[in-house]
Design a protein that fits this description.
Elements lengths: L7 E4 L4 E3 L2 E2 L3 E4 L2 E3 L2 E8 L4 E3 L2 E8 L2 E3 L2 E8 L4 E3 L2 E8 L4 E3 L2 E3 H8 L18
Parallel strand pairs: 1-4, 2-5, 3-6, 4-6, 5-7, 6-8, 7-9, 8-10, 9-11, 10-12, 11-13, 12-14
């Protein structure tokens, strides 16, 4: 393919992956993933299961996700079942979707992580929990 053109990868319903998945392309998942996913754009089928964190520029979720989700543009369809925190810039949730977690705009999350390690965060209060 010529450089600059997009590609699309599909993980079929008969595929189960244990391990992290990273794609520079758009990703369509109908199968089961046990690991973190990082991609440009994610489309999840209704029968798909993801057990791990999802990081994408855009995500359209229709299946089950157990883990945190970070996406600039996030669409949660009515068939989606999510267990984990959701970080977003733009969010759409269809009536009937189930989310067990907290919602927060990504701008707040990124601001917290913008402070270099070892330097105090003077703009925001921080909470540290003991192990």
């Amino acid at each position: 393919m010529a450089s600059g053109s997009s590609t699309f990868s599909v993980i079929g319903s008969d595929v189960a992956i244990k391990g992290d998945v990273s794609a520079s392309a758009d990703l369509h998942i109908d199968g089961r993933i046990e690991g973190d996913i990082k991609c440009a754009s994610l489309v999840q089928g209704e029968t798909s299961e993801i057990h791990g964190a999802v990081i994408a520029e855009s995500a359209r979720l229709a299946g089950r996700v157990v883990g945190s989700i970070t996406a600039r543009e996030l669409v949660i369809l009515k068939s989606a079942r999510i267990e984990g925190d959701v970080h977003y810039d733009a969010l759409t949730i269809e009536q009937g979707a189930e989310v067990d977690g907290r919602f927060s705009p990504s701008s707040q999350r990124q601001a917290k992580h913008a402070v270099p390690a070892g330097e105090p965060d003077t703009d925001e209060a921080t909470l540290q929990l003991a192990n």
